[in-house]
Amino acid sequence: MKYFHESVETMPVEKLRELQSEKLRKQVKHVYDHVPFYRAKMDEKGVKPEDIRSVDDLRLLPFLSKADLRDCYPFGLLAVPKGDCVRIQSTSGTTGRRVVAFYTQHDVDLWEECCARALVAAGADNEDVVQVAYGYGLFTGGAGLNGGSHKLGCLTLPMSSGNTDRQIQFMMDLGATVLCCTPSYAAYIAEAMHERGIKPEDNPLKAGIFGAEPWTEEMRQAIEKGLGIKAYDIYGLTEISGPGVSFECQEQQGMHVNEDHFVVEIIDPDTGEVLPEGSRGELVFTSLDKEAFPLLRYRTRDICVLSRKKCSCGRTFIRMTKPMGRSDDMLIIRGVNVFPSQIETVLLNEGYAPNYQIVVDRVNNTDTFDVLVEMTEDKFTDTVSGVTEQEKALQGAMKSMLGINPAVHLVTPHTIARSEGKAVRVVDKRKLVSDSQWKG
Ligand code: ADP
Ligand code: ZN
């Protein structure tokens, strides 16, 4: 099975744009007629629904930001009567107050279809046994992949996250072939299996679909090796539906955006200007089909690059690079921009495991920057000079990647908390970057 919905996933780009334009016209009218908050925003900008004739007119519309969603909590952006909704989900609250999103049955179906497409792109079909180890509940990870797996007809193991012993036992006993969870939890499961003496070739897995948090290429390689599988990325956010807004194919070169349901733009995060394909900027999504919570031009704060380059898998959907993190994950330390993912790259390149924590503080008006890294079995040393030498080497590698010098501290294996969901990599004691900076 190559595609879940072939005619759409391989639709010629021109036809796809026509389809998007047609859906967009309807969606803008739906939102204008049913969401007073957004209507006021459009009126303020002097835009009427009939001004939006095609996707090229998208830029006339105002942006929506996370701050708008928080202001409208809980029902302010609902575009259908509450009685028509069948579900809510909520953000993880990684960067502040939670946001709730509503779904009609139609919205749940389209979201699950997006996840089914992701599973097929990762090589799954209805013979597969899919272990869903994302959290179930308000978080979209569990529900999304669970639904996608059902849609595809796979035997679904609704494990939720945590209880790693049981994860491993069920995986082995029931022959799970596809694992879905956050990449940090996948790395933890790999570590736990290694400790139990289960070799990568001894587990039944063939692929994994990992997302919901930023992860590097180096992390991908570590997971692929640790579990003996192919590791595919999946991206999404609650506001737009959940995982499956975009997904990776066997090419593993960026994630295809489900463009029949979502229009994607890249903008300059400072000016809001739409940038040409190939530029690095902030992702903005417009939901074309959602009934209950149809966001137009939603600013994700995720930073990446889009490409229309033809993909060998045959899908025509545009691809986005891995977001290196949200604009608000970016740390500004002594005036230098630092993404946690850059530190992850250095650590894995130097042969360490992805177990680290970044601590930033301000002492006497100067930023302090500490990186705690676990020693690994093969690098283990208990001499002071051995430790100092390793710390120095790591510090040098980080300096050349980042341009500034962190204080690196090697710590005993297993002393940094493992993540079963989204990993918390940073402890920023300064709280310099306030949310207000990103109000669109
Ligand atoms: P929260 O914003 O509270 O974390 P969500 O659970 O909806 O809420 O998470 C969505 C966010 O997770 C995205 O905006 C993005 O920053 C991050 N994310 C999701 N998938 C990926 C991925 N594959 N790579 C990097 N970041 C991702
Ligand atoms: Zn592809």
Plain-language structure description:
The protein is α/β, with parallel strands linked by helices. It folds into 2 domains: 1-327, Rossmann fold (3-Layer(aba) Sandwich), CATH 3.40.50.12780; 331-438, GMP Synthetase, Chain A, domain 3, CATH 3.30.300.30. The chain has helices spanning 6-9, 13-34, 36-45, 66-71, 105-121, 140-152, 164-174, 183-195, 217-227, 340-349, 384-402; strands spanning 87-90, 100-103, 129-132, 155-158, 178-181, 207-211, 230-237, 242-248, 255-257, 262-267, 280-287, 298-307, 319-320, 331-333, 336-338, 356-363, 366-374, 407-411, 426-428. The strands form 4 sheets. Strands 4-3-5-6-7-8-9-13-12-11-10 form an 11-stranded mixed sheet, sandwiched between helices. Strands 18-17-16-19 form a 4-stranded mixed sheet. Helix 5 crosses helix 6 and helix 10 (340-349) crosses helix 11. The protein is globular. The two termini are 42 Å apart. Residues 432-440 have low confidence and may be disordered. The structure holds adenosine-5'-diphosphate and zinc ion. Zinc ion binds at residues 249, 251, 256, 311, 313, 315.
